[in-house]
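Entry for shikimate-3-phosphate complex. Fields follow.
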Amino acid sequence: MTSLTVTPGGALRGTLTVPGDKSITHRALILSALAEGDSLVTRYCRGEDCLNTMRALQAMGIPIQEQPDRLLVSGKGLWGLSEPSQPIDCGNSGTGIRLLAGLLAGQDFFTVLTGDESVRRRPMGRVVKPLRAMGATIAGRKGGELAPLAITGSRLTGMAYQSPVASAQVKSSLLLAGLFAEGRTSITEPRRSRDHTERLFRFFGIPIREQGPALVLDGRPATGWQGVNELPVAGDFSAAAFFLVGASLVPGSDVTISGVGVNPTRIGLLTILQEMGADIQVLNPREEAGEPIADLRVRAASLRGVTIGEAQIPQTIDEFPVLCVAAAYAKGRTVISGAGELRVKESDRIATMASELRKMGATITETQDGMVIEGAAGRPFKGASCHSHGDHRVAMSMAVAGLVADAPSRIDDTACIETSFPGFERKLLELTTPS
Ligand code: S3P
């Protein structure tokens, strides 16, 4: 079993880049595959999650040339996918399996989608039910609530859907299905989730519009879309998050992360950390492939507790594990509520973060949809042996906690970091080792 040992001490200093955004990479691959002709996707996320989506598209007949810093996707047009001869393994990726379910529901062939133990525990009903309402034929364990999912491609009809959850995976799954459906698909969500799909639709020239709170798409467009010369993927804010917190906590730190996506639907952590007293500057704002990006400079600061409610959840959803670390080290109490979605991520992140941080001496009370964290006011955590629970973000968050402990900490089962952030340990080491 792979493990990571973090030795506390040195300030984090220097400049770094982070992997391409995982959410954008999944979508860039799928929309490039449906385009006519070649698209060059650069600075993509080489995490296993995205590589699994790439392999899925290759298994459906899409040629993709893979290089470490670029993917050349030779799209075959809207109806150009073909039946894979084997089940598709989405690995650890909830995004991969849910987006592909939408993509495949309206094809004229059969597919089986599956994933690792974590994915096979996660709720699929949230996409299966609305897809069935559009005419999809999907079977799965527990009536389609759990993967594997067997999808018999069907003729779909567009529909107006009010999603009960603010989920970009649900929204994107239905938008992809809507492309293959007859008529109009419209989707409304209770709060706005990340909008990378909508932005990439526009980047490729796929008509999509907003009508009040609804996103509206006309299916089966008469003309398809062309591949793009270059689709540079923004740096992943969710990967940058570990350094934003790490450098905020370790005295003397000064880190600049260049080329990070700062899409407003993603940067809840930035706002929350600033409210907690963090010293983070957003520099050199620019736009690439329809996404705002910037360089983020973060310097150590003392943080204080904060209250986080439902309205802040969607734009912060993947950053709660590392936010818990910041809160446990800050001065005062942090209260998080309305975050029940955390219980159905790669792990139950309320339970896993509470139990792992307690091993390091933190005082945390779980609630049904959040937690109450009594900050240590800058008193070092206890060096401890922790476990990732197979969750990449838990693994990296505990590594960040280890930076401000009184002794080395070991995090076990860290192979999962590969799903989103290959090279995380090296980057962390480079910043802490004086050059
Ligand atoms: C994602 C959406 C979010 C997020 C996940 C990636 C996406 O999930 O937690 O890591 O790329 O659409 P939900 O849509 O289920 O909230």
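NOTE: Residues 23, 95, 167-169, 172, 193-194, 317-318, 341 surround shikimate-3-phosphate (CB under 6 Å).
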